[in-house]
Amino acid sequence: MLKKLASYIKEYKRDTILTPIFVILEVVMEVIIPLLMAKIIDVGIQNGDVHYILEMGGLLIVSAILSLTFGMLSGRFAAKASAGYAKNLRKAMFHKVQDYSFENIDKFSTSSLVTRMTTDVTNVQMAFQMIIRILVRGPIMMIFALLMVMSISLKLSAVFFVAIPVLGVILFYIAIKAHPNFERVFKKYDKLNRVVQENVSAIRVVKAYVRESFEEKKFKEVNDEVYTNFKKAEKIVAFNGPVMQITIYTCILLISWIGTQLIVGGEMATGQLSSIITYAWQILASLMMLSFVFVMIIMAQSSAERIIEVIDEEPTIKDKENPLTEVKDGSIKFENVSFQYSDEQKDDKFALENINLDIKAGETIGIIGGTGSSKSTLVQLIPRLYDVTKGSIKVGGVDVKDYEIHALRDAVAMVLQKNVLFSGTIAENLRWGDKEADQEDLEEACKLAQADGFIKEFPSKYETVLDQGGTNVSGGQKQRICIARAMLKKPKILILDDSTSAVDTKTDALIRKAFREEIPNTTKIIIAQRVSSVEDADKIIVLNEGKIDGIGTSEELLKTNAIYREVYESQMKGGDEDAKSEGQEKKDN
Within 13 Å, how many C-alpha atoms sit on residue 281's CB side? Predict the structure, then answer.
C-alpha cells in the first residue's frame, strides 16, 4: 500500500526531498544554539571576556536566523508537496471512477466516493506533510540533542534511554487500539454524507411533504453515530497527551535533581546544565511531535486504505485487445441473454432471463411492462453499462464485447430515466452530445426535441444558466433538453428510458413524428408507461418479471397478449371517459 501511495508523489518529488533536507539543516542550527549559550555562560560571562561573548553572540544570532530561514523553506516545500500529492490522489481516484462500470459504481455509494475524495484525501495529505517534515524533524532532533547530552554527561543521558522505549511501547499500544475505531468512524461518515446529500438534493420534496422533522431526526441519528464512534477513538488517543506530559516533567525533574548534584560535586558547570535542560526540552518536544504524527498516521491509515480500495478497484467492463472502433449500423440482436446484478446471487435470481430479440437498423421499438419488469436493465446492456451474465448481444452484427467501449457508447445515445443536467448554460449542457456543435446544430436538435420554443422564451435563450441538476426548469423541459442532447450525438441507436413521461401527449407525439421523419436510419428504442407513446412502433416488447411476454405490433398484441390488452384498455378507457366528461361539461355550459 505504501509503495502505491508513494507513486502519486510524481512531479512533487523535488519538493518532497527538499523538505527533509531543510528540516535537517533547521535542526542542526537549533542544536548549535544551546551549545553556544552554554559557552557564553561558562566561558564568556564567567571569565568576563566581552570579546568572546560578542563573538559567540554573533554566531548565536546567525544560527537563529538560519534556523528560521530553513524552517520557512521546509514549511513552504512541505505545503507544496502535500497539496500536490493530494491533487494527484484526487485526480487518480476521479479518473478511475470514470472507468467504472455501473456494477463498480453500485459497489461504492456516491456519498462514500465523495467522502473518500475529500475527507480521506485531506487526512492523507496532512499525514504526508507531517511525515516529510515533523517525522523527519523529531528523530533527527532527538538523535542530535541526545548526542549533545551524551557529550556533556552520560549520567543524565541515561534518563532518556529509559524514557524513550517506555513511551514507544505505550504509543504502539494506543495505535493498535485506536485504528479499528477510526475505520468505523469513516464508514459512518459515508452514511452521514449520504443523508446530507439526499436531503439537500431533494429539499423541495422534503418541504412539499413537510418532512423536515423526519429528516432532522434521521440526521440526528447518524450524526450521533459519528459522534459516538469518534468519541471512542478519541478516548483512546487522548491517553497520548497525559502520557507525554508525565514523561516530559518526570525527565525534567530527574535531570534537574541529578544535574544539581553534579554541579555541587564539581562535575558539571552551570551553563552545561542549562544547555542540557534545553536539549531535554528539544528531545521531549520531539517525542511530543512524534506522538501527534503517530495519531495522525493512525487516522490516515484508515483513509489511505479507503483511497487505495477505490484506485485498486478493477472495472468489470474492459476493452479487448485490438477492439473494433466503428459500429456498422443500429441493428441489435439479443441471443439467449440472461442477466443478474451480482454473481453472488443464486442462479434463479435473474433480472432478465432468456431474452431473444432481433431488431433491424432504423426500426422503432417500444418496450412496455410493469414496475420491476427490468425494462431499464434490458436497454442498459446494449451500450455495455452492464455486461450480460449469459448469452450475447450484437450491435451492427458484432458482439458488443468486441467493440471499443468508447466507440460503442458513442454510437448509442441514452436518455436515462433519471437523467440530469449540469450547472452551466443550456448550450453547454447540449454540447455534451457534441462538443463541436455550433448554434445552428443546437437549434436543429432542440426543434426535433420540441425544446427550441421554450428555450427561446428565456431572456438569455441558449445562454440561460441552469442550476445543478436543472432544478430551475420543469420536468418536461429537462427531459426535452436531455433528448436534444442525445440527438446531437447523431447516434446509430437512440434509447429513451421513460424520457417523455413529464411531457404532454401532444408534445410526445411531435417528438416521435420528428424521429420518424428526421432520423429514419437511427434505431429508436422507447420505454414508456403510456401506450400512446409506443402504439405506432414497428414492434412492441412486453416485459414481465424479466421475461419477454409478447412481441408484435399494437394490433397484434391486442389480440395475443393479455398484459398489453389490459394496459391498453385501462388507459384508453380512461381517456374516453375523460373526453366524454369534458364534452358533457361543454354542453352543460
Answer: 9
DSSP characters for 352-379? EEEEEEEE-TT-EEEEEE-TTS-HHHHH
What CA–CA distance (Å, rounded) separates 157 from 148?
9
At 194, list the grid cell: 449520504
Rounded Cα distance between 473 and 205, Å, is 15
Please report, for residues 201, 418, 476, 477, the alpha-carbon distance to residue 501 in angstroms, rounded to integers and kept in the order given: 21, 11, 8, 11
CA distance 140 to 137: 5
DSSP states along 468-487: GGGTTS-HHHHHHHHHHHHH
334 phi/psi in degrees, rounded to 5: -100, 125
Q: How many other CB atoms are there within 10 angstroms of residue 555's CB atom? A: 9
The C-alpha cell at 366 is 417500444
Integer CA distances (angstroms), 211 to 95, 197, 199, 214, 215, in order: 37, 16, 10, 5, 6
Nearest CA-CA partner of 385 in 314, 317, 485, 312: 317
144 and 31 in contact (C-beta within 8 Å)?
A: yes
Q: Cβ–Cβ contacts within 10 Å for residue 162, how many?
A: 12
Cβ(327)–Cβ(407) below 8 Å: yes
Residue 302 · residue 179 · CB < 8 Å = yes
Measured in degrees and rounded to the nearest 5, phi and psi for residue 410 equal -70, -25
| Cα distance between residue 323 and residue 310, in whole Å | 26
* Segment (H or E) for 457: none
- Degrees, nearest 5: CA angle 243-246-252: 140
Least confident of 30-44, 427-441, 489-503: 30-44
pLDDT digits (tens, 9 = 90+) for 444-503: 999 988 999 899 998 999 999 887 777 778 888 888 899 999 989 889 999 998 887 778
Q: Which residues contact 448 (CB under 8 A, 6 or more apart)?
A: 484, 487, 511, 514, 515, 518, 519
Element (H, E) at 523: strand 523-527
C-alpha cell at 328: 456498422
Asked if residue 580 has pLDDT above 50, the reply is no
Residue 539 per-residue DSSP state: E
CA–CA gap between residue 238 and residue 231 (Å, rounded): 10
Tell me the C-alpha distance between 180 and 539, whole Å: 57
> Which has the minimum average pLDDT: 73-82, 236-245, 444-453?
236-245
- DSSP 8-state secondary structure symbol assigned to residue 117: I
